[in-house]
Design goal:
This protein is α/β, with parallel strands linked by helices and 409 residues long. It contains 13 helices and 20 strands. Strands 1, 2, 3, 4, 5, 18, 19 and 20 form an eight-stranded mixed β-sheet that branches.
C-alpha cells in the first residue's frame, strides 16, 4: 500500500473558497487522488513512500480558453498535434484546459471536423501532459470577429446541431446575442439542453434587450462572458456585455427579475486589458465569478510569424500578444496562467488563495469540470509546488510529476 502513497508537505496551501492556510500541511496522494490533508505528522504521512516539500502548494491551473501553443503551420490546426501543447503546459502550471476551437466558413470541409475528432479522442487522458477536459467552441455564431477567422454566423439549425453532435465534450460555446435573437435564441436553447454553457461574446452591438433575452433563454443556467472587454463595447447609458459583466447582483428593475449576472473571463496578459481596467473588475466582482484565461495562440517568441486561416500573424516585440501582421488587431495572447496568477498577487495584491481560485477553482466550476481545480479530498492530485517568490518548481498531474524546474533548466 505504501508504494502508492505520496506526501507533499508545504508551509502554505491554497484551499477551496479562496482560503489560504499558513499552517504546515501534509497532502496525501493515493492512486492519483488527494486522500488526506493533515496539519500533523500522522501515521499516513510517515507511511508515504515518496515525499516532496514546497513553500506553497496550489491546485493546478485550469485554462478554459486556450488555442494551443503551436505544433502546426496554421493556428487552426494546432489541436491536430495536441501533444505539442500538452507537454508544454505543465511548465506554466496548467494541468487542465479546454481546447478552444474556431470555425472558418468552410469548417465542414477544411479539416476542422478532423481536428474536432482528434480533440474528442484525447479528452480525459492524463498520460500526454496537461489534460484536455473538453472543448470551448469560440463561434461560429458571432457578430464581431475580432481576430477570429470569418465563419458562418447564419448557420442553419441542422448544421448547428451537426456541429454540436461532433463535440460531445463541448463545455462552453461563445455566441453573440445580436445574432441569436434573430431566431428567437434557438441556438442558446440548444446549448442549454445539451448542458453546454452559453458564453456571450464577440458582440459590440448587442442591446440591453438582446442580452437580457439571452440570459432569460438560458435561465436557470448561468451564462458566461468570453474575454470581457475584448470585442465588446462599454457605455454608461447604453448597457453592453461589459456592463452586464461588471455587476455581482442585478439592480431591482424590470426585466432583470430572477436573473443572475454572467460569470466572466478575462485575458491575463495585462495587454488585452490594461491593469487599471483589470483593477476595476477585481473591485466590482467577487473572485468566484472571475476566471483568468490565457487566450493562448502561440508561444512567447518575439517576432515569430505563423498562419491563421490564410492570414499572417506575428508575436509582438515584447512576446505578450499575437497580432494580425501589419495591423493593430489582436488575435490572442502569448501569456500563461502562471503569468496571470503572479500578476494578481504582485500587481493587485490579491491573496494567494483568491488569486489561485481565479485560475483554478472558478474556471473549473464555470465549465462544470469535476474533481479538478481544488486542493481537496477526492480531487485529482493536480498540484503546483512553488517557492516563496511564486516561482514554479514542480507540477504534478494525477499524482505524477510532469515538470521539475531543476531537471528542466
Amino acid at each position: 500500500m505504501e508504494e502508492n502513497i505520496t506526501c507533499i508537505t508545504c508551509k502554505h496551501v491554497a484551499l477551496p473558497g479562496g482560503v489560504t492556510s499558513d499552517e504546515t500541511t501534509h497532502i496525501i496522494i493515493e492512486d492519483g487522488i488527494i486522500t488526506g490533508l493533515f496539519n500533523q505528522e500522522t501515521d499516513m504521512v510517515k507511511m508515504a513512500k515518496h515525499h516532496y516539500a514546497a513553500d506553497i502548494v496550489l491546485p493546478g491551473f485550469v485554462d478554459i480558453h486556450n488555442h494551443g501553443m503551436g505544433g502546426a503551420e496554421d493556428l487552426v490546426n494546432f489541436w491536430q498535434n495536441a501533444e505539442y501543447t500538452q507537454q508544454r503546459l505543465p511548465k506554466y502550471g496548467v494541468t487542465s484546459f479546454l481546447a478552444t476551437l474556431v470555425f472558418p466558413e468552410t469548417c465542414f470541409t477544411d479539416g476542422t471536423m478532423e481536428t474536432i475528432q482528434f480533440v474528442e479522442s484525447i479528452v480525459g487522458d492524463s498520460s500526454r501532459g496537461a489534460v484536455c477536459q473538453g472543448v470551448h467552441a469560440e463561434g461560429p455564431i458571432v457578430n464581431d470577429l475580432g481576430g477570429l477567422p470569418k465563419g458562418n454566423n447564419q448557420m442553419s439549425m441542422t448544421e448547428f446541431n451537426q456541429l454540436l453532435d461532433s463535440m460531445p465534450s463541448c463545455k462552453l460555446m461563445t455566441i453573440s446575442p445580436h445574432i441569436d435573437v434573430q431566431s428567437g435564441y434557438e441556438k442558446i436553447n440548444a446549448l442549454v439542453q445539451r448542458g453546454i454553457v452559453p458564453s456571450l461574446g464577440h458582440d459590440r452591438v448587442a442591446s440591453e434587450a438582446e442580452i437580457l433575452g439571452a440570459l432569460q433563454a438560458a435561465h436557470p443556467t448561468q451564462c458566461h462572458v468570453t474575454h470581457l472587454f475584448n470585442v465588446t463595447n462599454f457605455h454608461h447609458r447604453t448597457p453592453s456585455l461589459v456592463n452586464f459583466g461588471l455587476v455581482d447582483v442585478f439592480p431591482n428593475i424590470p426585466g432583470y427579475e430572477r436573473l443572475a449576472p454572467p460569470t466572466v473571463e478575462i485575458i491575463g496578459d495585462m495587454c488585452h486589458v490594461h491593469p487599471l481596467t483589470v483593477g476595476i473588475l477585481l473591485k466590482a466582482r467577487c473572485f468566484n465569478q472571475i476566471a483568468f484565461i490565457s487566450d493562448c495562440t502561440a508561444e512567447s517568441v518575439p517576432g515569430k510569424k505563423l498562419s491563421y486561416s490564410g492570414r499572417t500573424m506575428e508575436v509582438s516585440a515584447d512576446g505578450k500578444c499575437l497580432f494580425v501582421s501589419g495591423t493593430c488587431t489582436l488575435a490572442g495572447s502569448c501569456c500563461t496562467s502562471h503569468d496571470a496568477f503572479k500578476s494578481l498577487v504582485n500587481i493587485f495584491h490579491i491573496s494567494i488563495g483568491e488569486a489561485s481560485a481565479m485560475v483554478s477553482e472558478t474556471p473549473a466550476r464555470i465549465a462544470h469540470l469535476k474533481n479538478v481545480g481544488k486542493v481537496d479530498i477526492g480531487y485529482r492530485a493536480d498540484l503546483l509546488l512553488m517557492d516563496e517568490s511564486l516561482n514554479l518548481k514542480q507540477t504534478f498531474i494525477a499524482g505524477k510529476k510532469c515538470f521539475d524546474f531543476d531537471s528542466d533548466s
